[in-house]
Amino acid sequence: MERNYDYIFEQREEVTFNVVDYVVFGITLLISASIGLYYAIKDRKKTDEKEFLLAGRSMQTFPVALSLLSSFISAITLLGTPAEVYTNNTMYWWISIGFIISATGTAHIFVPVFYQLEITSVFQYIELRFGHVCRVIGSIIYLLWMLLYMAVVLYGPSLALNAVTGLSLWGSIIAVGFVCIFYTTLGGMKAVVWTDSFQMLVMFAGMLALLISGSMKLGGLDVAWDIAERNQRILFFEFDPDPSVRHTTWNVVVGGGFFWMAIYGINQAQVQRAISVPSVKHARTAIWLNFPGMFVILSLVCSVGVVMYAFYSTCDPVSIEVIKKTDQLIPLFTMDLLGHLHGLPGLVLSCVFSGSLSTISSGLNAVAAVLLEDFVKPYFCKKISGYAATIFSKATVVGCGLVCLALAYFVSELGAILQLAYVLFGILGGPLLGLFTFGMLCPWGNAWGGTVGIVTSLAFVAWIGLGTSLNNVVVTPKSPLTTAGCNMTAINALRGVATTLAPTTSAAIASTTPAVPEPPEDYFLLYRMSYIWYTGLAVITVLIIGSIVSLITGGHKRMSEIDPRVICPFFDVFMPFLPESFRRKMRCGVRHGDEEFISQFHTTQDEKLQHEGNHNMALEISQIDLSEKKDVTNGYTPHIDTDLSTKL
After folding, report:
1. Residue 223, Cβ density class (10 Å: 0-12 exposed, 13-18 middle, ≥19 buried)
2. Are strands 481-482 and 512-513 parallel, antiparallel or unpaired?
């Protein structure tokens, strides 16, 4: 059944935001800002920076789970995923299954170690494990990664607003940025978590409204599915092992699993919220609650992509330049579909806007923590008071928010935001994931191995990513698009172009955009590799290079003297049914479960804190009951972090 949607473009010129849409949109902003203002007033007497950055480790599990989920469901997901299905196919849907790999590693390897060390910045762990130089390198990479990523997320919804409201693109970017800076600066981590929870509900409602309305317009979701299937958009079982294929079951599940682990396992923005709950058990629960939530949201946005393709199946709006980029498809679809239903377009675009707010706010909070813990305290003011640290963190949120505004211009010149985000995570996030994995799972690794491993991995993956981009390598051909059903007279009139064409479906002048040809075989093999493998390749590079360099430089000569809290006992966690004698050998000499040995690190830390004059923290440490905080699952006693690199 061929469908003709000429009326879309005949009426498009009259469809704009209504007053009701602006009211709905404004209410979303007002609620987000009000949450920040509420916590600013409520916690005005609390001056400790850990209250601002970690919410005093008192957050409840469910809102933290929603907050973790909402940071993933950014504007990149809401705009980019439906566009991916529209342009290519539904193989990306498999990435929701890849989250199982990520949740397993995050909940049972990374977060327990971070939580039990009671760190504020994840890079404090790197100094404990690999020394000061490696910590600085990792921190700088992370700051660059997050600033660029937040710029991508900031640009996305502003592009959406520009497409449907006529509001200046840069006016939108500035508005989005300042609202986010406002409530993050005022309310800290509590404001971030609770606004994320609210914004998650808005995102779900917006996408659900779009899916239901689109399905009703087409005559049912089954009709949309049939149209998409006949046009090569429905594909789930692609098992080609060729790494140059853009999306296959293997690379989306496994490569996507590594990608999510870089987000959830070692990303300061996610870890900072995961450890804001009262215990490791609560943190694990919050992480695993993300799996059903992520599956539902991804299924929802992929279904929207299917319906959106069916809606424009005979007249691709990108080919005829009604819009410039596929990232503008969702706002165009929203206005074409719901423009006459006042309020609903405002809800859907608030959904996209909320996705951006949630990601940027958590990112700004994380960047503030890294700058304070990894640069200010070690280099400039070791005895900074809690009040001064809080003021610095708030100033950092403002400053980094302004930097993101500037970087948004750079992002605007790049390609589709979904692939751009994955490449960015692979090049910068992948080496960091590799470094933390190497530190927690490879006791033989030393400072030389960690430092050389992350630098080599960064250079290697950056070379592949930049080489692919500079050579314009197209990894996998896109599915064909057509303009055969377009009314070119109405379209040209919409664009202000004089025409003498008859107002009929002009198949004679329309065309089908063919699939992009296969990439030439003479391209370098790694340049033809799918972008989704970048993170996994970076991790493997760190593990291999780090191990080789560590062994060449003598390895960790006294593994029995390593603080057991910085190493995850992999076999004890995942294979506790194995004989104790075997598991003991697999610990490589690390003394997990030896409370008397671990207490030596504890005592040394107490003395250091007292020497520095931090009497309050020393008192808290002295009151810790080791027996109550023992992690039964991992078989080793938790403790606080700070500077134990001299012990390692």
Report:
1. middle
2. antiparallel
The correct answer on CATH 1.20.1730.10 for the domain covering 6-480+515-549 is yes
CA neighbor of 38 nearest in space, from 180, 187, 182, 178:
187
Residue 524 structure tokens:
């370098």
CB atoms under 10 Å from CB of 421, counted, come to 22
Angle at 421 between CA 157 and CA 337, to 5 degrees: 35
Q: Return the SS3 of 265.
A: coil
Name the token pair of 453. 């491993």
User: Among 332, 301, 334, which Cα is nearest to 217's?
Assistant: 334
Q: What does R_g of the chain's alpha carbons equal in angstroms? A: 26
Decide: helix, strand or coil at residue 512.
Answer: strand
Contact present, 512 and 481 (Cβ < 8 Å)? yes
- Asked if 208 and 388 touch (Cβ cutoff 8 Å), the reply is no
Q: What count of other Cβ atoms lies within 10 Å of the Cβ of residue 256?
A: 25
pLDDT tens digit sequence for 169-197? 777 777 777 877 877 777 666 777 777 77
Contact call for residues 487 and 475 (beta carbons, < 8 A): no
The amino acid at residue 433 is: L
Distance, CA of 416 to CA of 76 (rounded, Å): 9
Contact predicate 389/226, CB 8 Å: no
Instruction: For residue 482, report the phi and psi dihedrals to the nearest 5 degrees.
Output: -135, 150
- pLDDT score of 618: 39
Distance CA 153, CA 163 (A): 16
Angle value at C-alpha 438, between 72 and 68, nearest 5 degrees: 15
Structure tokens at 64: 């933290």
Q: C-alpha angle with apex 141: 135 to 146, nearest 5 degrees?
A: 120
Domain ranges of the chain: 6-480+515-549, 563-648
What are the tokens at 542?
Answer: 């760190």
Residue 515, token pair as written in the block: 């699939």
Do residues 400 and 392 make contact, with C-beta atoms less than 8 angstroms apart? no
Are 631 and 112 a contacting pair, CB within 8 Å? Answer: yes
The H-assigned helical ranges of 312-343 are 329-338
Q: Residue 110 has what pLDDT?
A: 93
Task: Identify the top-confidence range among 101-115, 158-172, 620-634.
Answer: 101-115
Which three-class secondary structure state does DSSP give residue 482?
strand
The pTM (predicted TM-score) of the whole model is 0.80
Tokens found for residue 165: 């409201």
Sequence letter at residue 487:
N
d(CA 339, CA 8): 11
